[in-house]
Specification:
heterotrimer, A mainly alpha, B mainly alpha, C mainly alpha, A: mainly alpha, three-stranded mixed beta sheet, 23 helices, globular, C: mainly alpha, Four Helix Bundle (Hemerythrin (Met), subunit A), two-stranded antiparallel sheet, 11 helices, 2 strands
């Protein structure tokens, strides 16, 4: 397999590409103005925030169009920055890598970001800290762009930590709520575990290759031993698990729904949580050489796609259903990324389409919440399709997209992954298909409970259609959810072939393999079950359950309990043991050295009686000793 | 006569001075013991002078006398001060050197 | 031919035991004064040994400097710090006496061995060196090659003398009054209180002692507090022994009255004796009379001093 690797050496930036840094600099400047300007910017800060991301989008679009006009070999562009770290043999330059993969990500981040920003202007209209919200959102855009545009793992890590910080700030944006503060802290702490993986991976790279630059690493992986590459792959997988909420580090994502809904849409659905997939795809040259690590990625993906679907099927909170769904869809992406060169492009394809329809679903949920006085319990909804027609239509489009009804976007992107999974192994294919069925079930459940059936509204709630500023992004995103699949179906394979090392094979959009038909059948069954189960009466209160499947799903697969028992208490016990060890052995040796010196000093201080005559005697003894030595020396 | 006898006498006197320095507690007697040791050394120097046939040893003894006179003056003044503040002539009462 | 027994040998065997005896006596005497006397004797013996070694100048210098000056300084100091103090025989430091004896002995053996190891052969003698006179010989060395060292010892002695004064001098209790200030104060006191601006009475006047710590007696036999330096009074050394000090005065008055009784036939003696026993009553009755009479009398009340 080694010889199959095609290393892409980026060309140095010229012309417009020299200004790639503007993509990052514009939102950074905006963020700085909003943070430093304080309350003076309250009245117009949100529009400045929107302008920031729009500026970034404009640069990204210009670069993309320029790139379209270039021959394939020149599409990967390296933008030199400055000497960043220079320690011993490690000389690291901070620079940007603008290639097909990163520009796609930049377009997703700034494009979907722009729509969500516009949505936020309306959604956060009554929040006194709206200006601060936009400052944090711009900060997130900056960090996310640094993450995807970095030309080395260390700069990527800077962005990685930056989006973690932005995520922390935005989950805890309403920090007055105890649950929000706790959720922010939890997200931060769990992400640290993943960061440990990325750090260890970087240390390993420095040790193995002497560099953390993507190009250097790609060129050097061929010479490394498979054992080390497997370790490297697992470290990177740990990092990806932390950021992308994959099992076993998934527990933070559901709590992260405490943040404002646009945050959930942008960070915890469309962009940041997919950074793990980006990392794995970006490191594909490592995974191609280590079957074990690739298999681990596939397993993590499959387990997570089922776990997310399980959680999504049991929750009554609309945002948590969508969060479970996000986990599940990212599981698909991880599965595709783990499959190898064939899957990398499909992972990004699904990531891209998912960014649109999942953002649409979240924003639609936000619109519903807006109408229902910020209630998120689906048991209090029902029959909203008539009062919120626009929301219903756009939400319905994205619903059809996510469950994979042709010819909408989700069908194509998911179909490719399922096909690739079948080719990887029938068990993966079977589980992926099953996951698609469960997705259809819980999304149908969500639709039924929210938009159909009878009114179960709380007293004093009078739902109404959202204002135009909220509807506009919904419409744009739903259009994306409709057309992206057909448009990108083939193009994205060819576009992403160089950075992912894939071998595209063309297929018309109506040419659907047998796995696609099977999956569609399973999806229809899922829809049918969902319809049958939730067409009738739905109780206002969540019914008590002893069904273990439902119970475990409602409690986030008992992840918190597991973490508490294994890591919190286990870690506490380990820390106590280490503390005892430290106290007895390390401190003990130091203390006994101290007491030894003290004892010697105490014994010697007895000689120091304070009596001049004793000192005189000592002096005489010394004189005698010197004399004896002299005489003996003379005699010898 | 060989000066050896004088030198042995000098050693004996010096050792007696050391003994007095070590076992007496009255600061004045201790000081006298020091003077005794100085005198023993002077005797040795004069004896060496005699043995070597030049006067340098005597000159040395003379300088020792002068310095001893200065030393006695200062030493006794210090003893006076200590006595004024502590009302005691015993060196065992002067044990502030203790840790 | 060298005589077997020379004057030097005789002198050595006389004075060496004496010097050792003096040294041992110095160490073992319980009274400091005895120690000092023993040391002085040892130093004289040592001076004689110097003489036997052809060192006449040092012989004289030893006696003058050590026996005369240094030992006197020791004795003066001893007077101040307590001539009576004797060492207790109980050794306070455990094992000190035994250890000191052992190591003193070892040191002596070591020194004798060292001397034995460095035996000086040959007779030596200073006949040649002392040919021009011992003092002249020493002077030619001292003021020749060693003149600078000699000058330094002169400086050393000067510094030592000044240092001794500084060290032994007591701290003043108050601010020193200048002459001008004193004159102004005395004039002011005379103007306001009628106090005598003249000098205060000297201490010890008419008293049984003329020591500085004894107050003067006024003509009526009472004590003049002013005659003793306030510094001494503060330090508590002034003697205020009123009755003892007045004894001479009382005797003089009693004798005077008896003589007067004999001459005039009166019988005042018992009454005056009673009144003299009461210190307060004396002045008013007899001072004037006695002082007048004393002026013309041969009898001197202070004679008994």
């Amino acid at each position: 397999m080694v010889s199959l690797l095609e290393i892409v050496i980026p060309v140095e930036a010229t012309g417009l590409f020299s200004y790639s840094w503007l993509m990052i600099a514009i939102p950074m400047l905006v963020s700085a103005i909003l943070l430093l300007g304080g309350k003076a910017t309250d009245s117009w800060g949100h529009w400045l925030g929107v302008l920031g991301v729009l500026g970034s989008l404009a640069v990204a679009l210009a670069l993309w169009i320029t790139m379209l006009g270039l021959p394939v070999a020149e599409r990967a562009v390296h933008v030199s920055g400055f000497d960043w770290v220079s320690v011993g043999n490690l000389n690291l330059q901070a620079g940007l890598l603008v290639d097909q993969l990163s520009i796609l990500f930049a377009l997703l981040v700034t494009g979907v970001g722009s729509l969500i920003f516009i949505y936020s202007v309306g959604y956060m209209a009554h929040d006194p800290n709206r200006r601060l919200f936009f400052a944090f959102l711009n900060l997130f855009i900056v960090a996310m762009l640094v993450l995807v545009l970095a030309d080395n793992y260390l700069l990527l890590f800077l962005g990685w930590e930056g989006v973690g910080l932005a995520s922390y700030l935005l989950i805890g944006f309403w920090q007055g709520r105890h649950s929000a503060a706790l959720a922010a802290k939890k997200a931060f702490v769990v992400n640290r575990v993943g960061d440990l993986g990325l750090l260890t991976a970087m240390f390993t790279m420095v040790g193995l290759f002497g560099s953390v630059n993507f190009t250097d690493v790609n060129q050097a992986v061929g010479s490394a031993s498979t054992t080390w590459l497997t370790a490297l792959g697992l470290f990177l997988l740990l990092a990806a698990c932390g950021k992308s909420a994959q099992v076993p580090l998934q527990s933070w994502l559901l709590d992260a729904m405490e943040g404002p809904t646009p945050v959930s849409a942008l960070i915890h659905a469309a962009t940041m949580v997919t950074a793990g997939v980006y990392l794995v795809v970006r490191s594909h040259s490592i995974y191609e050489l280590t079957a074990a690590a690739s298999l681990a990625v596939c397993i993590v993906g499959v387990v997570t796609l089922l776990a997310g679907a399980w959680i999504g099927s049991t929750k009554d909170d609309i945002k948590k259903v969508l969060a479970g769904s996000t986990m599940s869809q990212i599981g698909y992406m991880m599965l595709a990324a783990g499959i190898g060169p064939a899957g990398g492009a499909f992972a990004i394809f699904h990531l891209f389409t998912h960014g649109f329809f999942k953002a649409n679903l979240f924003l639609g949920a936000g619109s519903v919440m807006h109408a229902m006085n910020d209630d998120t319990d689906m048991r209090h909804f029902g029959a909203l399709r008539k009062v919120m027609p626009w929301t219903f239509v756009t939400f319905g489009i994205s619903y059809l997209a996510i469950i994979g009804i042709p010819p909408l976007a989700g069908f194509y992107s998911k179909d490719h992954i399922v096909v690739a999974a079948w080719e990887q192994g029938w068990y993966f294919g079977l589980l992926a298909t099953l996951g698609a069925g469960i997705t259809a079930f819980y999304m149908t459940r969500l639709m039924m409970m929210t938009f159909f059936g009878k009114k179960r509204w709380a007293e004093g709630v009078h739902p109404h259609e959202s204002p135009k500023i909220l509807l506009f992004p919904l419409i744009v995103l739903s259009i994306g959810a409709i057309v992206l699949g057909v448009v990108l179906n083939n193009a994205i394979q060819y576009w992403l072939a160089p950075p992912t090392g894939g071998h595209p094979h063309s297929a018309a959009w109506w040419d659907i393999p047998w796995q696609g038909w099977v999956t569609l059948l399973v999806v229809l069954v899922g829809v049918g079950i969902g319809y049958l189960m939730y067409r009738g009466e739905i109780s206002y209160e969540q019914p008590h359950t002893i069904n273990p499947i439902v119970y475990i799903g409602r409690n986030d697969l008992l992840a918190d309990q597991f973490n508490d028992v294994v890591f919190v208490r286990g870690g506490g016990a380990a820390a106590a043991a280490v503390a005892t060890l430290d106290d007895v052995i390390v401190d003990g040796s130091v203390r006994s050295a101290g007491s030894l010196a003290k004892g010697i000093g105490g014994a010697l201080s007895k000689l120091e009686s304070g009596y001049a005559r004793s000192y005189g005697l000592t002096m005489v003894i010394g004189a005698i000793a010197v004399g004896v030595v002299l005489i003996l020396g003379r005699l010898a | 006569m060989s000066p050896n006898a004088y030198l042995v006498l000098s050693a004996i006197l010096f050792s007696i001075g050391v003994l007095g320095f070590l076992i007496r507690r009255n600061v004045l007697i201790i000081f006298m013991s020091v003077e005794l040791m100085l005198n023993a050394a002077n005797l040795a120097m004069v004896a060496f002078s005699y043995a070597n046939g030049n006067l340098l040893g005597q000159v040395g003894a003379f300088f020792v006398m002068v310095v001893a006179a200065a030393e006695v003056v200062i030493g006794l003044a210090i003893i006076m001060i200590i006595f004024k503040t502590r009302r005691s002539a015993s060196v065992d009462d002067q044990n502030q050197l203790k840790h | 031919m060298i005589p077997l027994i020379t004057g030097q040998v005789v002198a050595f065997w006389i004075f060496a035991p004496l010097s050792v005896a003096g040294a041992v006596g110095m160490v073992v005497s319980r009274k400091p004064v005895h120690s000092a006397i023993s040391l002085a004797g040892m130093m004289v013996a040592l001076a004689c040994l110097y003489a036997s070694l052809d060192a006449p100048f040092l012989f004289v210098a030893q006696i003058i400097v050590y026996t005369g000056a240094i030992m006197m300084l020791f004795l003066f100091t001893m007077m101040i710090v307590g001539v009576d103090s004797t060492d207790s025989l109980i050794e306070t430091i455990k094992g000190q006496r035994v250890a000191a004896s052992i190591f003193g002995f070892v040191l002596a053996v070591l020194l004798i061995l060292a001397v034995g190891n460095g035996v000086v052969t040959g007779r030596g003698g200073l006949d040649v060196a002392n040919a021009g006179g011992n003092v002249q010989g020493l002077a030619s060395i001292t003021f020749g090659p060693y003149v600078f060292a000699f000058l330094l010892t002169a400086a050393l002695l000067m510094v030592a003398a000044v240092a001794a004064i500084v060290l032994a001098h007591g701290e003043p209790l108050g601010k020193r009054e200048t002459q001008a200030e004193r004159a102004r104060r005395k004039t002011m006191e005379f103007a306001e209180q009628g106090k005598d601006p003249g000098p205060l009475p000297g201490p010890g006047v008419y008293a049984r002692h003329n020591s500085i710590e004894y107050p003067a007696l006024l003509p009526d036999g009472s004590i003049s507090e002013e005659s003793v330096s306030p510094t001494l009074a503060v330090r508590g050394v002034a003697v205020v022994e009123n009755d003892g000090l007045r004894a001479a005065y009382r005797a003089a008055v009693t004798e005077f009255i008896e003589v007067q009784d004999e001459n005039t036939g009166s019988d005042d003696a018992p009454r005056v004796a009673d009144e003299l026993a009461d210190p307060g009553a004396i002045a008013e009755t007899y001072v004037e009379q006695i002082s007048i009479e004393v002026a013309g009398s041969d009898s001197d009340p202070a004679k008994e001093q």
